[in-house]
């Protein structure tokens, strides 16, 4: 059958529906044109990637025939048991070992995935049919919006304050969905809770607790659980105060919170080992889906992460990563202070990889805009803010913002890139 165009096609509805993820285009452009200063997407800081330490650990691993053979063999669908235990323990420690909450941190419900991206995808696949609804932050992680788009899942945006979503607005959104009899379509609320991509903001403990309470309150009308999916991808990339505990630390969280995390950003993006903790009701469905995706994450990569955690390389390198990103964040915001006009608004990040900048509303920063082209003519790339908003029929999409990443570029390039951006602005 034909899709949107009139040519016959053998593609499935999903094959026809799925648009090119902007992340692929943005990362591809940088690889094609290395002269571009990319303040856009994806890559992390090359000099902090743990090359020497990883070589040592891999030599140890492959220097032993039995260990080496095990590492080069398939593993299990849920992931290496030691890594699952270490991961569950680490999340619990980061949460301050909350008393009476052991159920939230069971290794048994911890799944190792190919990056946290795969985990986000599978959790969504297990919960959502086309036309279901996921509530997201306004703005949110644009690659997750791609998953929703591809799977035909609709989004509703919830406005953000400095400490996470606006609970009053979340209630309004839930209430209006109840009135229109659409609550049964709502499967979860997705929050990027630490140094959010793209705004850099973190969700406070109160907001996590309040959001869980609100979701519970609307479950009866929905006729099923409404989950909170907490994406903690940047949790360990903080460079100021200790951030709030995860939503798992809340009473009763074990059966409502889906926690997603990663060893990509804090250790090595190329290793691409992520993880998630699932409520009991979702564990078997997600593992069955993973069995069909790949029946297990790359075993060698998992063994490297186990050894990095056990040997202390992970912690040592993490401290370096945090110092480096703090310096790069400062280089970026110092340059913004020097080169951007007053009318541009942004917040000093306390972690993560991004600064979110708002231009005056009349400036369109979209991929097809004159502004984007002019910036690209000056060999600079950024992520247009509009990409980070879900297609929510109840509000217009803001188009005057940009996400500027200090992850991959060197300090000199960050300064140069911001100066050129300032000239265009
Ligand atoms: C908010 C957020 N979640 C998840 C991911 C996925 O990362 P990975 O698959 O490398 O764990 C990213 C990557 O940029 C991200 O920014």
H/E topology pattern = HHEHHHEHEHEEHEHEEEHHHEEHEEEH
CATH-assigned homologous superfamily of the largest domain: Type I PLP-dependent aspartate aminotransferase-like (Major domain)
Cα(first) to Cα(last) distance is: 47 Å
The tally of helices reads: 14
**Percent strand:** 5-15%
Strand segment count: 14
- Give start-end ranges of low-pLDDT stretches: none
Give the averaged pLDDT, no decimals: 95
Structural class: alpha/beta
Q: Which term fits the overall shape? A: globular
Q: Give the second-level CATH assignment, the architecture of the largest domain.
A: 3-Layer(aba) Sandwich
| Name of the CATH class of the largest domain | Alpha Beta
- The Rg value, from CA coordinates, equals 21 Å
Largest β-sheet summary: 8 strands, mixed
Count of the separate structural domains:
2
Q: How would you summarize the topology of this molecule?
A:
Blueprint: H1 13-17, H2 22-32, E1 37-38, H3 51-63, H4 65-71, H5 81-94, E2 110-114, H6 115-127, E3 133-138, H7 142-151, E4 154-161, E5 164-165, H8 167-179, E6 186-192, H9 205-222, E7 227-231, E8 257-262, E9 273-277, H10 280-293, H11 299-311, H12 313-339, E10 345-346, E11 354-358, H13 370-377, E12 380-381, E13 383-384, E14 401-405, H14 411-424
Parallel strand pairs: 1-12, 3-4, 3-6, 6-7, 7-8
Antiparallel strand pairs: 2-9, 4-5, 8-9, 10-11, 11-14, 13-14
This protein binds pyridoxal-5'-phosphate (PLP).
